[in-house]
Amino acid sequence: MAGKRTDKCEYFLLKKMGKTISDYELIENNDRIVVGVSGGKDSLSLLRLLRVRLNCIPINYELLAVHIDLGYGVNQMEKLSKYLQQENYQYHIERIRFEVKPGEKISCFWCSWNRRKALFKVADRFGFNKVALAHNKDDLIETALLNLFYHGEISTMLPSLEFFQGRILVIRPLVNIEACELKRYADIMRLPYLEHSCPFQADVTKRMEMRNLISSLSRKNPHIKGNILKSIERKEVLYKPRRMLGLE
């Protein structure tokens, strides 16, 4: 019975991810893709799903799991390395140390940008043309509300976005999958995902506020998440293929 549940869950997520990849033309034959792996449930699920998908499609692509080691959470990093090695993933640990200027505040945005910059450098150094990030449907909705409430604009993360005159394409294959679905999948597959160990985690207050707000509203109206995304679609912010966004 457990095997059937595993197969059904994986099939369901592969189907949803595959539709996103097809709709937004995220992956093509012979792509070389860096997968940003923090060690959390989302990134480990993305890595596994992308590899399993290779057995279901007529094209080929190469995956390189990349973890950005900032110098904390040593035990967790060792656990992640052991898992990637045991599962025969091609992987790379990029060890960096941020230089904080006097008076500069370390925030989630600051940390996220520097992690992403490190991923870009690894992709460029090893000749990979795409970087896959594990942002899910909930991440997009939370970002949309953050931008609306705190920046006065209707926008969120795109399924794909080009950088450096098209040398690197950031892709987000999980944007139509909810966080709870990925949590269930990671637990069923027994992925050794890590808990957050960021020493600056208190800075995520605003995003947690949005998460709690959405959760509270969803208990009263289960269509809240879908309605938020539909409002973004109507503004032509989110759901457009790359060719319609003028990126080709």
Commentary on this structure:
The chain is an alpha/beta fold. It has a single domain (2-234), classed as HUPs (Rossmann fold, 3-Layer(aba) Sandwich). Helices cover 48% and strands 12% of the residues. It has a 6-stranded mixed sheet with strand order 3-2-1-4-6-5, with helices on both faces. The longest helix has 22 residues, at 2-23. The termini are far apart. Mean pLDDT is 85; it is low at 239-248.
Q: H/E series, N to C? A: HEHEHEHEHEEHHH
Number of strands: 6
Unreliable parts: 239-248
Can you tell me the overall shape? globular
**What number of domains?**
1
What distinguishing features does this structure have?
single chain, Rossmann fold, 248 residues, 8 helices, six-stranded mixed beta sheet, 6 strands, 12% strand
Briefly summarize what is shown.
With 248 residues, the chain is α/β, with parallel strands linked by helices.
Give a topology summary:
Blueprint: H1 2-23, E1 31-36, H2 41-53, E2 61-69, H3 74-86, E3 91-95, H4 108-126, E4 130-132, H5 137-151, E5 160-163, E6 168-171, H6 179-188, H7 205-220, H8 224-234
Parallel strand pairs: 1-2, 1-4, 2-3, 4-6
Antiparallel strand pairs: 5-6
Helix pairs in contact: 1-2, 1-6, 2-6, 5-7, 5-8
